[in-house]
Specification:
Layout (H helix, E strand, L loop, with lengths): L1 H7 L2 E6 L11 E8 L2 E6 L2 E5 L15 H8 L10 E3 L10 H10 L4 E4 L1 H10 L3 H4 L3 E3 L7 E6 L2 E7 L13 E7 L2 E5 L7 H5 L10 E5 L1 H4 L1 H10 L4 E5 L17 H11 L3 E3 L5 E6 L4
Parallel strand pairs: 4-5, 5-6, 6-7, 11-12, 12-13, 13-14
Antiparallel strand pairs: 1-15, 2-3, 2-15, 3-4, 8-9, 9-10, 10-11
The structure holds zinc ion.
């Protein structure tokens, strides 16, 4: 059984610091932490950026340092040649219309995919929209359904994972399951789906290597059993961690970032916290 085989592979992790610009080698997934929930994925000669093109952010969540932000929007190394840019939703700590337009303007082959709400914001606020319109896509499948989009070397599954039921205009939030190189990576954005809603996607069938989730999903006992049981990834990457100046209530009963991290690491040994600029190389220790 393919699932059984894949489970036997160990994922090895090494960490480099400072947005190092070395390419992924064969059989390896490189994940660069861009800031807040932003990750740059690289495998099989393809590059995908999720939730990395934002500007203002939302305090106390971390922003990209200014000089790196410039390089990022100008599509300069190590942020050059990104094939696909994804934004889970339109909030200011995940997406900025000007930043996305700047990147697409700097990198003529890059495609952008997000929710209808985010793309509508691009259309309304970016003057040069017409010049990038043919590379901008939006879709929102029905809840519980997946929609697949294939690009050269990348298969993208879109999942409608709601951002909470409150409010007059619910915030659309996409979960992305990205098949890139030999790896499968899930990014859930800021979803508040419950067990039944997540189970509907039968995610365990995909042998997901890496699940990128907000740290609160690993901090809370019920949320972490939900993700461990339904997604069953080899590795969790914990993102969206506030800066150390955040009020204690951000860290639940842990009260501070360091205690929260050590508690999560103890409860979820397969969890890794991403700090902006860190590059994680994930490798399987053996081939089947
Ligand atoms: Zn957020």
């Amino acid at each position: 059984m393919a699932g059984g085989l894949r489970r036997a592979w160990a994922v090895a992790l090494t960490v480099l610091l400072g947005f190092a610009g070395v390419s992924a080698i064969a059989g390896e997934l490189r994940v660069t932490a861009v800031g807040n929930a932003g990750v740059l994925l690289e495998a099989g000669g393809r590059r995908v950026l999720i939730d990395g093109l934002y500007r203002a952010g939302v305090s106390p969540y971390l922003r990209v340092p200014a000089h790196k932000q410039k390089a990022l929007e100008a599509a300069r190394e190590p942020f050059d040649a990104i094939d696909l840019i994804l934004a889970t939703h339109h909030h200011a700590d995940h997406f900025d219309a000007g930043a996305v337009a700047a990147y697409l303007g700097s990198s003529p082959k890059t495609v952008f995919f997000s929710t209808p709400q985010a793309v509508d914001r691009l259309k309304r606020t970016v003057e040069e929209f017409e010049s990038i319109a043919d590379r901008v896509r939006s879709r929102l499948p029905a809840e519980g359904r997946r929609s697949i989009s294939d690009m050269d070397g990348i298969r993208l599954h879109l999942l409608n994972l709601h951002h909470g039921r409150g409010g007059e205009t619910p915030v659309q939030n996409l979960g992305f399951l990205v098949e890139i190189g030999d790896f499968r990576v899930l990014h859930v954005g800021d979803t508040e789906v419950d067990r039944t809603e997540l189970e509907a996607h039968d995610l365990a069938q995909f042998d997901i290597d890496v699940a990128v989730v907000g740290y609160w999903n690993l901090q809370d006992r019920e949320r972490r059993s939900l993700y461990r049981e339904t997604v069953r990834p080899e590795t969790f990457l914990a993102v969206h961690v506030p800066g150390s100046e955040a009020p204690p209530e951000y860290f639940g009963s842990a009260r501070d970032a360091a205690t929260m991290r050590s508690r999560v690491r103890q409860a979820v040994p397969e969890a890794v916290f991403l700090a902006p600029g860190e590059v994680h190389r994930l490798r399987r220790s053996s081939e089947p």
